[in-house]
Amino acid sequence: MPVGAAAGTPQYSGVFVPEVWSATLLVKFYDACVMAAISNTDYTGEIKDVGDTVNISTVPTITIRDYTKNQDLVIERPESPNVTLLIDKAKYFNFICDDIDKYQTHLHLMDSWSTDAGQQMKITIETAIFADIYADAHASNAGNSAGRISGDIALGTTGTAVALTKANVLEKIVDCRTVLSEQNAPESDRWGIIPEWMAGMIMKSDLKDASLTGDATSVMRNGRLGKIADITLYESNLVYSVSDTYTCYHSLFGQKKALTFAAQMTKMESLRTSRTFGDLVRGLNVYGYEVLKTEALIDLYIRKG
């Protein structure tokens, strides 16, 4: 209850509703989270708790054979093993809402706290994912001999990161497009996660041909990256970096089928604390991710040139 008020004074008392707060926070999380844009999130609703597994059916590769007249046909029984998405990670928060402040919970406080919690959860989770999945890129999608067919595209490797400048930054994005195309990755839903300094180089580059971005005007005029070479670019300060003579970055490119990601607020509750006058508000977010198509994921290892 809020602090009492004199007769005739309006009270703004509200009630913390765990289910409402949980749903609001999850929406805020997905709004902030780039994972929702670059991955398959179809399995989020199937999570109940940490330790759950989600079985994902995969499509088998059908064999095409030669045919001659009157021959006996070979019967194929297509098989493709399921991929297991393990919900084996969890993050939580636990804070106090003082009784004097509780009257705000149905106004701006709930919204502002859920926005911040979603943003902080996004930072924590995406930082961990970006630092992990780059190593799952297909062998033909990384290193200085990339390209399933060409085998001569330099995407950088330890000790020889690609030195990006405004003169070659577009070339490297086009190279990533080529690598995806040689892997027969679908042309739709291609994406790239780039550090902010790389985005700045793109804006400084000579993008006179506005058709590169699919916009009516170039990024030199509208300041928006959008698509380049059919790849939607997302700027992020969370791109994984390492010290390799220079500060080097594992900038990720891919297609949406490469990765699956699922997260769910499985616990949201409020309980009284004995240490002061207030309620503890705590929540548990469980999540998991899995690279399903390594051939649709690229590790572009770069540094500032």
Describe the model.
The protein is α+β, with helices and mostly antiparallel strands and about 300 residues long. It folds into 2 domains: about 20-60 and about 70-135 and about 260-290; about 140-260 and about 295-305, 2-Layer Sandwich (hypothetical protein PF0899 fold). It has helices at about 20-30, 35-40, 110-135, 170-180, 195-205, 220; strands spanning about 55, 85, 90-100, 160-165, 190-195, 225-230, 230-235, 240-245, 245-255, 260-270, 280-290, 295-305. Strands 4, 5, 6, 7, 8, 9 and 12 form a 7-stranded mixed β-sheet that branches. A 3-stranded antiparallel β-sheet has the order 3-11-10. A hairpin with a 1-residue loop joins strand 8 and strand 9 (about 245-255). Helix 1 (about 20-30) crosses helix 3 (about 110-135).
The rounded Rg comes to 25 Å
Low-confidence stretches: 1-6, 9-14, 218-224
Portion of residues in beta strands equals: 25-35%
User: How many domain modules?
Assistant: 2
The total of beta strands comes to: 12
| Helical fraction | 10-25%
Q: What is the residue-mean pLDDT, rounded to a whole number?
A: 81
In DSSP terms (H or I, runs of 4 or more residues), the helix count works out at 6
Shape: flat
Structural class: alpha+beta
Straight-line N-to-C gap: 59 Å
Order of SSEs, N→C? HHEEEHEHEHHEEEEEEE
Main sheet characteristics? 7 strands, mixed
